[in-house]
Amino acid sequence: MALLLSLLMALVMCSCGPLGSLGCDLPKNHGLLSRKTLVVLRQMRISTSLCLEDRNDFRFPQQMVNDSQLQKAQAVSVLHEMLQQIFNLFHTERSSAAWNPTLLVKLRAGLHLQLEHLETCLQQVMVEEDSASVIEDPTLALRRYFWRIHLYLQEKNYSDCAWEIVRLEVMSSFSSSTNLQEKFGSKDGDLGSS
């Protein structure tokens, strides 16, 4: 439980962090929206004590969030891809069977709004930077990571335990992106500038 709470706090810090300092203008309510999405993810919890044997290492591409060569447009692209993949994961027909329908609708709506915000942000930073310099490798690694998650769910026949392991993995991987956001933090150190 302590690990879960620390992951949740990291996700809040990640979601409410310096996205506004990535060179784009996000709505003032973006951080609040991220916190609400986090609360919904926490509420979607299934008892993990029954799921220990279903744990899996999905090999999150940690080098992607630690890459010191990423430019702002690439970082926003990575963050957008992560949200898009999470949205896709929880927007499948099979996900509907595992989760409370009301919570699933709230999660999807929150992720959708955050994606819209990041799409606008991505367009802004792409204009500011040479778009030819945006390499696809970071997002390709993310797509492969989420493909492994999809294969795992298939292998486990989309069981409740498999979904719970995936939910925890999603929260963990998303919190790892905090390093990427901190890299492009504002110069004055204000992490809540969004």
What does this structure look like?
The chain has 194 residues and is mainly alpha-helical. The chain is built from nine helices and no strands. The longest helix is centred in the middle third of the chain and has 28 residues, at 101-128. The protein is globular. The model is unreliable at 1-21 and 185-194 (pLDDT under 50).
Q: Please, what is the oligomeric state?
A: single chain
Order of helices and strands: HHHHHHHHH
Gap between N and C termini: 30 Å
Structural class: mainly alpha
Strand content: under 5%
Average pLDDT over all residues: 73
Low-confidence stretches: 1-21, 185-194
What shape does the CA trace take?
globular
What's the total helix number? Answer: 9
Number of strands: 0
Largest sheet: none
Please bin the fraction of helical residues.
55-70%
Rg: 16 Å
Briefly characterize the structure.
It is built from 9 helices and no strands. With 194 residues, the protein is mainly alpha-helical.
